[in-house]
Amino acid sequence: MAYNVTTTIQEHYDLASPYYKDLWGPHLHHGYYETGTESKLEAAEQLIKLMVQRGNFSRGARILDVGCGIGGTSIWLTEHMECKVTGITISPVQVQMATEAARQLKQQPTFLLHDANDLNVEGEFDAIWAVEVISHLSNRAEFFKRASKLLVPGGIICEAAWLKDEDLDHEDEKKFIRPIEEGMLVDLPTLAEYGHHLNNNNLRLRHYEDISEKVAQTWDVCLEIAGKKATWQLAYKHGKEFVTFLKSFKAMKDGYKSGAFRYGLMISEKR
After folding, report:
1. Mapping DSSP to helix (H, G, I), strand (E, B) and coil, where does residue 162 land?
2. CA distance 217 to 239
3. Which residue has the higher pLDDT, 165 or 247?
4. pLDDT tens digits for 209-263?
5. What is the DSSP secondary structure assignment for residue 160, as one 8-state letter?
6. For the chain, how far is it from start to end, CA to CA, in angstroms?
7. Given this model, what pLDDT does residue 47 score?
């Protein structure tokens, strides 16, 4: 069964994004916990800094932020790296929130309502930034084909990817992976699938790093949030999918603990 249905994902983020901002802040992604004592915001920004470091792209780079959420990363890259950022999301609510959040900037990112399954953005880019978004896509082969065409020679895809382990048996996949896919509205690929897409599209994997141990603490923080009565009242008010989403917080933690679920940082370069 496919859980990463575009219309369902759009509806989820249209509904949930204002609440996510209140719960998590401007960055709707994992945090990188170097010491384990960081705040949510510090850890989230540490992940961005790590990706910038591993990507090694220059100040002022032209970046396409795929799945830009409510604009947190696009704004950070604009403020701290003077990058020229175009952010895309399938959620009209997120476009509105991101645009509003960037109003105070002298140089503002551009935020567009756009489906990455049908990537058709004008221009060329030094880097494509994709954090926790590719597993949401139902047509990854087409995404990588079009992404490669948007990159200049030597340009990179800077990606933080949700992955499932290569060698899972049916029982472990059912126990650890399916609850994540159902609750988070994703279809989890393996690293081998990514390799296939890269090889088919004039891309090479320049750097891969499994940072699961440094990001797994994110779900301790999320489970604290999910433990609040008000959070569940909100979920039941908005329907089954929101409840399933909250229940999948524990599935994420269990997935990391088992090793079935992995978090990979990848830098892929256009040849």
Report:
1. strand
2. 27
3. 165
4. 999 999 999 999 888 877 777 777 777 777 777 778 888 999 999 999 999 999 9
5. E
6. 36
7. 98
Are 235 and 183 spatial neighbours (Cβ–Cβ below 8 Å)?
no
Query: Is residue 135 domain-resident?
Result: yes
Residues, the chain: 271
The label of the residue with tokens 């960037």 reads 102
Number of domains in the chain: 1
The radius of gyration of the chain from alpha carbons, rounded to an integer in Å, stands at 17
- The answer as to whether 1 is a domain residue is no
Please report, for residues 78, 115, 201, the alpha-carbon distance to residue 66 in angstroms, rounded to integers and kept in the order given: 15, 9, 18
DSSP for residue 90: S
> For the segment 122-141, what is each residue's pLDDT rounded down to a tens digit?
999 999 999 999 999 999 99
Angle between helices 72-81 and 92-101 (to 10 degrees): 30
Expressed as residue numbers, the domain containing 264 is 6-270
Question: How remote is the C-alpha of 103 from its chain's centroid?
Answer: 23
DSSP per-residue codes, 176-241: IIHHHHHHHT--PPPHHHHHHHHHTTTEEEEEEEE-HHHHTTHHHHHHHHHTSHHHHHHHHHH-HH
